[in-house]
Each structure stands twice: as structure tokens, then as C-alpha cells.
Predict the structure of Selenoprotein F.
Amino acid sequence: LQYVRGSDPVLKLLDDSGNIAEELSILKWNTDSVEEFLSEKLERV
């Protein structure tokens, strides 16, 4: 998680090597949408 003052919110998904695999603008997403998306995309450890 990184905060950059004045920038739009962006979600960066990394691959197993730590490289950016996908970058999504979440400017108009609400909290429920973010939680739902992450629960579908992330693996449970």
C-alpha cells in the first residue's frame, strides 16, 4: 500500500515474481466493490 498525494486511487496486482501484472483505477469503486474484487482475485494463505 502506497499513498501518493494528489493521485487517483489505483490497485496494482502483482505476479509471483513481484512484477505488476494488472493495474486498475478504483476511483469510482466503493468499499464493498473493492472487498468483493479482492476476495475473488486473492489467494487465501
Observations:
- Residues 31-41 form the longest helix (11 residues).
